[in-house]
Write a structure and sequence with these properties.
Helices cover about 40% and strands about 20% of the residues. It is built from 8 helices and 9 strands. The protein starts with a helix and ends with a helix.
């Protein structure tokens, strides 16, 4: 192998390793990732001679409902997707229309992401749960969805047994639900939107009527989509402990090539 070829290989390997190391060091604590809220258990265990805390975060259990197209759908069908959820009803006279319009803005903003930043909108699913499922049939939801320009593929408006929906809101999403002004006291009513990661762990609550909160939600969606997956880390993450040694080896190889090249020139002269 020629000297130039070997140097090129060294540079090709060394530069990404150096940049990865610098970026990894500088990024620690640089971005405040959306927190996790609820855990099922906490245990301590030994790892590499150190006692660490292992937290099992609560993942929302599966729920089976009917969407606006009349299809039976479930949370299990969208495993691996980030979820933005809210609660509404089609006859709502107050906050629901604004919530829906703001959710639509998020839907429209995300649809351009694949071209501009490489993010895949199939990684995001919008869910709107009707809190008045008796009146909100699939047909009523479809009419409402079409009125607001809902993309039926990535945004489900859901109806089903009232107890199923309310139990999910209260027990799985831990919603601080309250009655809205002028709303039947049998309804839960909240202007909060909920963000769940791809494991369906709650990562945030946002006021769906507040522009600043919506901006934060949009940013948090991107952070979670780019979040490092501890269960499936990248090759560079796996090799991180060996990176200093690899850099030294590559530098030594480069120095060796340079020294041999110098000696050959001296011999030739």
């Amino acid at each position: 192998m020629s000297k130039k070829a070997l140097i090129a290989i060294c540079v090709a390997v060394l530069v990404p390793l150096v940049f990865f190391t610098i970026t990894d060091l500088k990024s620690k604590g640089a971005i405040a990732m959306p927190r996790r809220y609820y855990y099922d258990s906490v245990a301590e265990k030994m790892k590499d001679g150190k006692m660490i805390t292992d937290t099992a975060w609560h993942q929302a259990n599966n729920i089976v409902l009917t969407n606006q197209l009349g299809n039976i759908v479930s949370l299990d069908q969208i495993k691996g997707r980030v979820i933005i959820a809210d609660f509404f009803f089609t006859h709502c006279p107050s906050i629901c229309p604004t919530l829906t319009r703001n959710m639509k803005k998020l839907q429209d903003a995300l649809k351009w992401k694949p071209e501009s930043s490489g993010l895949d909108t199939s990684f995001v699913q919008f869910l709107s749960f009707s809190v008045d499922p008796t009146r909100d049939t699939a047909e009523a939801l479809k009419k409402y969805a079409d009125k607001y320009g809902v993309n039926h593929d990535i945004w489900w408006m859901l109806t089903g047994p009232k107890k199923t929906i309310y139990d999910f809101a209260l027990n799985e999403l831990k919603m601080g639900l309250q009655d809205g002004e002028g709303v039947d006291s049998n309804f839960i009513h909240t202007q909060k939107m909920v963000l769940m990661d791809k494991y369906h762990v709650v990562r945030g609550y946002y006021d769906g009527l507040d522009s600043a909160e919506l901006s934060k939600l949009a940013n948090d969606i991107v952070f979670i989509m780019l979040e490092r997956d501890k269960k499936n880390p990248s090759v560079l993450v796996e090799l991180k402990p060996l990176i200093p040694l690899m850099i030294i080896v590559m530098l030594a190889a480069g120095a060796g090539v340079y020294f041999l090249g110098t000696q050959q020139k001296k011999s030739g002269s």
